[in-house]
Write a structure and sequence with these properties.
18% strand; 11 helices; 7-stranded mixed sheet; single chain
């Protein structure tokens, strides 16, 4: 039995459940190990290999989630900041939501990986989360999900209704442009050029009025172009104006890896910026600086000076 063709989609599933790429990979490895040990008990007349693997993965995820706090972004913890000069002190005791490095796995469905949806899923109890993803995202039927969760079809349908009701305020994810959308690419390319030029007014012109900027593991976030612009002035004052940026994709969204110049003249990896673009404006920028998160994207740590 070859389980490897299912690894990528299982990692994506466990990521939606846990909001942690590192944990998702570990849980899929545990799923594969359990499946291998139980392969003699697999009944092809009862379920396909894929459905069987999801049953195992679901149980592994539900066990892992027992007693766990949800993984948030800073905007889920309190009101926006008012002072862009606030000290940037990381909160290392919070299990922050992590981004998903799209290039690591070849998957077709990207829209259902968006940060806003993954954040919203974390509000749900674990079983509601599983039912919603299995039914709405992965398109398993109610009977299959009932079997995966050792419950009944009416119970699955009831749980799905409650999960849907709890997420009514998530908004229309379809309004967020795909990374390969020409208009979104142009907006992010213009942002890249403005950032490398340290041109704050040009950056601000690309932002929606109610743009959100957040920077896990710092529990601080800002709303609005005024605060965003003031914070970017601070960034260039603190880290200099010589930056190099690289394009990539995270969670099915356009992203940039930002490299700041060091005293030797090289550029060292500083952060990963993941954008939500609606129309011709950036509505959200989530800036990740945790080195462990950056490592999952297989980015060079340093770009030598020319």
């Amino acid at each position: 039995m070859d389980f490897e063709p299912y690894r990528g989609e299982l990692v994506a599933y466990c990521y939606r459940m846990l909001a942690s790429f590192h944990e998702a990979e570990d849980l899929v490895q545990e799923t594969m190990l359990r499946a291998w040990k139980a392969r003699d008990r697999y009944d092809p007349a009862r379920a396909s290999v894929r459905t069987w693997l999801y049953r195992i993965a679901t149980n592994v995820c539900l066990t892992a989630l027992e007693g766990r706090a949800r993984r948030p972004l800073p905007s889920g913890l309190g009101a926006p900041g008012e002072d862009p000069g606030t000290p940037l002190t990381p909160a290392t005791d919070i299990p922050w939501l992590q981004p998903f490095p799209d290039a690591r796995y070849d998957m077709e469905a990207r829209a259902d990986m968006r940060l806003a949806l993954v954040v919203a899923l974390q509000r749900l109890p674990a079983r509601q989360r599983a039912v919603l993803v299995l039914r709405e995202v992965l398109q398993f039927n109610a009977a299959e999900v009932a079997d995966q969760l050792d419950t009944t079809v009416p119970a699955v349908n009831s749980t799905l209704q409650r999960a849907r009701a709890a997420l009514t305020d998530v908004g229309d994810g379809d309004a967020i442009a795909e990374p390969d959308d020409p208009e979104a690419r142009e907006v992010v390319d213009r942002y890249l050029r403005a950032f490398e030029a340290a041109d704050v007014p040009a950056l601000v012109r690309l932002l929606a009025d109610a743009v959100v900027l957040e920077m896990p593991p710092v529990p601080l976030w800002f709303r609005g172009t005024e605060h965003y612009g003031a914070f970017m002035h601070r960034v260039f004052e603190l880290r200099g104006t010589d930056w190099a940026l690289r394009r990539l994709v995270a969670n099915g969204q356009p992203a940039l890896a930002a490299y700041a110049q060091d005293p030797a003249g090289d550029h060292r990896l500083h952060s990963l910026q993941v954008f939500a673009v609606t129309g011709d404006r950036i509505t959200r920028n989530v800036v990740f600086t945790d080195p462990q998160v950056l490592d999952t994207f297989d980015l060079p740590r340093r770009i030598p000076s020319n």
